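Lesson 9: reading folded outputs for more than one chain in a single document. The general rule is that every protein is listed as its sequence immediately followed by its C-alpha cells, and records are never interleaved. Here is the first one.
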Amino acid sequence: MKVSMQTVVAAALMAAMITTAGCRKNENPTPDEQSGPPAVIGGKSWPIFRGDQALRGVAEGELPDALKVKWKFKTQDAVRSSAVIADGLVFIGSDDAHIYAIDAATGKKVWSYKTKDAVEAPPLVIDGIVYVGSRDSFFYALDAKTGVLKWKYETGTEITGSANWTKSPDGKTTWIVVGSHDYRLYCFDATDGNVVWTYKSDNFINGAPAVYDGKVFFGGCDALIHEVSLADGTRLGQIETGSYIAGSAAVDDGKVYLGNYDNILLCGDLASREVAWEYTGSEDAFFSSPALTEKVVIAGARDDRLHCISRGGEAVWTFSAGGDVDSSPVICGEKAVFGCEDGRFYMVRLADGGLVWSLDLGQPIISSPAVAAGLVVVGCDDGFVYAFGAK
C-alpha cells in the first residue's frame, strides 16, 4: 500500500502530542499518582529517646511528602513524654500517671502501668525491659511484653529526662544512667536496680544523658555541660555555658551540642573542654534538643522558630512556626519533623527549611517524634498519641 508523505507527518505529530501529554500529566504527580516504591520511614526500631545513645536525633530511611494518621491512642491527660518503638510496640508515658505499651500496627493498648504522678520522661527499651522515670521520684524497670514490674528505685525528687545505657567495663552487665531533679546522675545495674555509682551536679538535671566514647554528657540548671566517666562516675571535665540548660545534649565527632536559657545554641569541644562556637540567632530560649547531620545542627527555640546551623556555627536557615518549638526535631532522609505549641505537626526540607507538610492537631505538641517501623509517633496535649504513616 502506498502511503503519502502527509500521512507519515500527521502520524508522527500525533505520536509526539500523545507522548508530550503523558509527560505533562506526570510533571507534578499527586501522592497517589507517584510511581516507584513508597518511602521507607525509619529503621526497625527507635528504642531510645533521640534514636541512639549519642542522642543525635536521626532516623533511617526517608519521609514521604505527606503523612496520614494511621491510628491514635487516647490517654486521660496530656502526653508530653516522647515515644520509643521496639519489638512491634510503642512505649510512652502520659500526664495521667501511666506508662503505656501500644501495638504499633493497630494502635490498641497492650498494657499500662500506673505510677503516682505524671510520666513526662521518654522511656528506654533494652533487652526486653522498659526503663522510665516519673514525677513521683521513682525510676521503674518493667517487662516490655507484660508491663510487670521488675524493680524500682526512689530518687530524691522528680525525673523528667530519659535514661540511657552502656555496658559495664567488663562487658558482662548492662548499666542504665538517668538524671533526677535531686541534682544526681544515677547509674543502675539493669538487672536488679542496684546502684553502681552516683554523680552529684549543682542543680536540676532535666534532660537525658548522652553516652559517647566511654563517657556520659549532660547539662542542667547549673549551666554546665558535665563530662563523667561511665566506668566509675568520676568527673572528667565540664564546660561553662552561662545559663540554665533545659534540653539534652547531642554528641558527635568530638563535639557536644545543646541550647540554653540565654537564647544560645552552642558547640563544646570535648578535647579542650571549651566552647567552640555560639549561635545567637534565636530571640528566646532553647528547650528543644538538637538533631545532627554531618553538615548541620537543627533545634527548635521559644522564638517560634526551627533553627538550622552549620556544624561550624553559621546560620543556614530558620523556619517560622506559630508558637514555641520545645519539641525536638528528628531528621529522616532529606526532611525533618517536629511538633509545636501552635498545635501543628510539621515536616520541612532539610536543604532550605521549606514547608513540605503540616497537620493541625489542635493542642500544643511538646512531645518529640519517634521515627521507626514505618511510623512517625508523637504525643499531644490533647491526650492522644498519634501514629502517622505514608499516604
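And here is the second record, again sequence then C-alpha cells.
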Amino acid sequence: MKVRQLSVFISNQSGRISEVTGLLGEHDINIRGFSVADTADYGILRVVVDDPEKAHSVLKDAGFTVREDDVICVNLPDTPGALSRVLKLVSDAGVNIEYIYSLVSTYVVINVDDADRALQLLEDKPVELVSQEEIVGIQEGS
C-alpha cells in the first residue's frame, strides 16, 4: 500500500510556503501531512494531500516545480519504541530510510528566525499554542 507525496520546490524566502498552502486551501485540497527541508537558497515542501492529482495540477499551473513520489505510511501505537521497532525492521533488511515525518496531526512545529516575535504575533489570535508539558501529555493544572 503506497501513498502519493508531492515535493514542491520553492525559493527560501518569506511567504513562499504560505503561498503553496494557500493555493491548496483555495482549491479545497486538504493537507494530511507535510515536511519542509531547506538550504540557504531553496526549500522542498513535501506534502501528502487528499487529492494529489488536483494538487499537482494546481501547483504546476501556478508555476511551481512539483515532483510526485510513492511513499509508505504506517500507523504507530503511541508507545515508547514503536517508531524505532518499525525503522529497525526496514533498516535491518538493508533498505535505506531517506527521511520520515508524521501525518494527520494538528500539532505543528514551526521553526522561525525570531520565536519571541512570532509568539507575540500569535498570542492574541485564534491560534492554540502548545506547551512542552502538553507535548508530553501533562495537562496544566493537574
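What the second record shows: The chain has a mean pLDDT of 85.
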